[in-house]
Amino acid sequence: MKEDQGTYRPLSYFQLMEVTLRELLVEKGVLTQQQVDSEVQAMRERTPERGARVVARAWADAAFKRELLENGSKACEAMGIQVPGLHLVAVENTPQVHNVIVCTLCSCYPRMLLGIPPDWYKSLNYRSRMVREPRAVLAEFGLAIAPQTQIRVHDSSADMRYMVLPMRPAGTEGWSEKRLAELVHRDCMIGVAVPKGPRD
Amino acid sequence: MIERGHHDLGGLPAGKVERTEHDYAEWERRVDAMVQLLRFQGRITVDELRKNIEALPPEAYRSMAYYEKWVASLAQTLLQRGIVTTEELARKMAEINARS
Amino acid sequence: MPGARFKPGERVKVLKAFPPGHIRTPYYIRGHVGEIERLCGAFPNPEELAQMRNGLPAQPLYRVRFRQKDVWPDYSGNPADVLEVEIFQHWLEKA
After folding, report:
1. CATH number, domain at B74?
2. Does C27 reside within a domain?
3. pTM for the whole thing?
């Protein structure tokens, strides 16, 4: 069991709470330490790279793209990417439409696919402003959306979780899925960035 | 309970989004892991966890770090479910403090 | 389980109600009119799950599309910009 990095510091109240709960749950036979360690490792392995592979396949294979847009979780599992309990909705960017995701009520995010969301996604300011002034917030992220493009903001208020299917950059014709996936980073699938192609 | 939960933030005026990210500490990852495991076991639901986070006082909600809120909520949820008692928590916390 | 009452494209209004409890219908959308984008399926009621009850029967859940300019009086983006929110059937009525 790794301790927190850095020099010795006494446990904060909340770190103490984590140890307390864990040890009690293990004593009671509710969990084992190994289960906790395995789950920590499993979450470490859920990274945006998994989503990037899904995007690359959708770019390369029109039939897969249709399946992805119809049932996101089913499409992931068809690729061998396990996403237990995830109800994934993939929303497609086009020249006319740009999508962006937020959870105003808490921090809902497709964790089983992409892993843990970044701090800013969970921040009070992002959750407050993205539904009301998406263009201003996207501009702060360095993304300018043309005035004539429709912005669709998705508020993950209930059981669905969302990923943005970005547009495939120009100049990538004939690229392998592996090479295409390298263009797709986490923020492209939240909708605060777009992938850059060889001409950008 | 008041008319608008202080967690219900959509549309409220707010400042610039600070694009902070941090590599989550091990204790935070373990909180996340315990929540996932207890949910998979059907012992708690994410809805109870959310309700208990929403029940934090407004200033605490705004100033506590994400996993601090989760672990505080997890403790309340486990107490409500009768999976742990306050007495057990007190005993264990004292024991841990005595070790260090 | 209650049947799905609304179809894609149908205009619906979110109830203008502010009860206590754990609620997944955001405050900002209550009372507003939008259209059904899709039926997502039926899911246990989170308001009940939060109170340690089983939330059954599962309730129909919809994605509802709203025009930003209808929701925020001072919205200054493209008039075509939309907000899409998941809302449970019991929070919706025909508009």
Report:
1. 1.10.472.20
2. yes
3. 0.95
